[in-house]
Q: What sequence folds into this?
């Protein structure tokens, strides 16, 4: 079953087309990666899926329903975490999670907060103000917040970017276990290609607002005749750079 489906999404900002006809699906029990160089349109695509940005054309279907017509119901069944989104720094970890648990209408909020605190190994930090935490600790708080409502779709933008290798590895194991055991789904963006190779069942590479390649890590490496996903990323990014340079020369 398709938990998420995007159909020909287009988003323009003045004269720039940030997203240009993007279509893909995320099925239950699946982890899908949305990759590409900076400016490829990934974050704008995520924001349209989350209802933060309205597409100029195209459609987002969540759980088989049109997001535009069933916004509140659809968004209640997903959650989001990103390194560039902050929770209130003056509140403690526990106060933040309790507040969000009530906002998400979580049943038995105190119990659920306790569960996610344990999942993300935040027990010793729960009484500490968020602004006093390290960036890696704040990332774990963000992930705990995103898990509060037990989302059927978890959308993550650079989920482990600020974590040290050991904590990042344990977080990846946790996220994969939750997806597999609870038949949830996950859509992630990341510049950590080893992370993507390990976590993602399917990967969509974006460039200039379009999806330019799709497949598993092995399929993409074979298609580009390279050894790993990082080399695929470099091929996509450098092709775009050469095109930008040619366009600049033409403009001059």
A:
């Amino acid at each position: 079953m398709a938990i998420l489906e995007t159909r020909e999404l287009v988003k323009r900002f003045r004269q720039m087309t940030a997203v240009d006809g993007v279509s893909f699906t995320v099925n239950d029990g699946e982890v899908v990666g949305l990759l590409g160089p900076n400016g490829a349109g990934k974050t704008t695509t995520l924001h349209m899926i989350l209802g933060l940005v309205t597409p100029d054309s195209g459609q987002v279907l969540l759980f088989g329903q049109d997001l535009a017509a069933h916004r509140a119901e659809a968004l209640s069944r997903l959650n989001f975490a990103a390194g560039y989104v902050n929770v209130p720094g003056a509140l403690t970890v526990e106060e933040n999670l309790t507040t969000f648990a009530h906002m998400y209408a979580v049943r038995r909020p105190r119990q659920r907060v306790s569960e996610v605190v344990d999942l993300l190994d935040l027990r010793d930090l729960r009484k500490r103000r968020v602004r006093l935490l390290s960036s890696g600790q704040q990332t774990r708080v963000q992930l705990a917040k995103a898990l509060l409502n037990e989302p059927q779709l978890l959308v993550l933008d650079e989920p482990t970017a600020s974590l040290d290798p050991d904590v990042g590895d344990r977080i990846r194991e946790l996220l994969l276990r939750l997806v597999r055991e609870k038949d949830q789904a996950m859509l992630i963006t990341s510049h950590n290609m080893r992370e993507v190779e390990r976590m993602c069942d399917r990967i969509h590479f974006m460039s200039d607002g379009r999806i330019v390649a799709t497949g598993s890590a092995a399929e993409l490496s074979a298609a580009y005749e390279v050894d790993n996903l990082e080399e695929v990323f470099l091929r996509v990014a450098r092709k775009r750079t050469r095109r930008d340079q040619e366009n600049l020369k033409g403009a001059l």
Remarks:
- The two ends are 50 Å apart (CA to CA).
- The chain has a mean pLDDT of 91.
